[in-house]
């Protein structure tokens, strides 16, 4: 059938392994075609083959400007993955099934976002994808389509809302820093109080603390000149020698 001598008398259609096709004869649907090569004689009969790619496909849902329940305007970019499961439903019963699927995702996304305030939406953003998939699944099946995935790529905030969110974040971080500082100050004060109580109960510990501070002071002094009579020696003795 592929001989050059027959080329003027034969028409050919090829259905790839990842495709499904529908055969129309004189505008009337006849049957579904599986993958392979098909030949017909060239005559007055009109032959049309409608083919559909059955591989998984990506649908981009970008630039969706949606108002939340409290009137915050958001711009959302999302994606969906699907594949044609029933070619007869997709082609014979529906026109431009991909556009209808896009609208179904768009409406489900708007329904979800409009039902929550801005703060609630941020708290429940992980629940968006399961909700959208559940909402669209039945409508997609009516289109002969199997939906395999959905996700939010970006939630873009207006400039004024973004600035407010940044201010809130900075205020929260400052509050956390102040809390940590107060906690450390409290711990330090409690430690000093415990030390003071121990020193009050133990004269030797008091004297050791005295010696510790004298040592710290001495580390910063390169030389000491002492002049005086025996009274000075007695005063130093009182500082460094524990009293019996």
Explain what this protein looks like in three dimensions:
There is one protein chain. The chain is α+β, with helices and mostly antiparallel strands. It folds into three domains: 4-53; 57-156, 2-Layer Sandwich (Tetrahydropterin Synthase, Chain A); 173-215. It is 48% helix and 27% strand. The protein is built from seven helices and eight strands; from the N terminus they run βββββββααααβααα. The protein has helices at 87-92, 97-114, 118-123, 128-142, 159-201, 203-219, 230-240; strands at 10-15, 19-25, 28-33, 36-41, 47-53, 57-67, 73-84, 145-156. The strands form three sheets. Strands 3-2-5 form a three-stranded antiparallel β-sheet. A three-stranded antiparallel β-sheet has the order 6-7-8. The chain has a two-stranded antiparallel ribbon with strand order 1-4. A hairpin with a 2-residue loop joins strand 2 and strand 3. It is rod-shaped and about 135 Å long. The N and C termini lie far apart (124 Å).
Radius of gyration (Å) = 41 Å
What is the H/E order?
EEEEEEEHHHHEHHH
Oligomer: single chain
Structural class of the helices, strands and pairings? alpha+beta
How would a textbook summarize the main sheet? 3 strands, antiparallel
CATH superfamily caption of the largest domain: Band 7 domain
SS strand fraction: 25-35%
Number of helices: 7
Question: Mean pLDDT, as a whole number?
Answer: 82
- Report, as a whole number of angstroms, the end-to-end distance: 124 Å
Helix residue percentage: 40-55%
The first-level CATH class name of the largest domain: Alpha Beta
Report low-confidence residues grouped into runs of 5 or more: none
Side-by-side strand order of the widest sheet: 3-2-5
- The structural domain count equals 3
CATH architecture of the largest domain: 2-Layer Sandwich
Q: What is the 3D form?
A: rod-shaped
CATH fold group of the largest domain: Tetrahydropterin Synthase, Chain A
Give the total of beta strands: 8
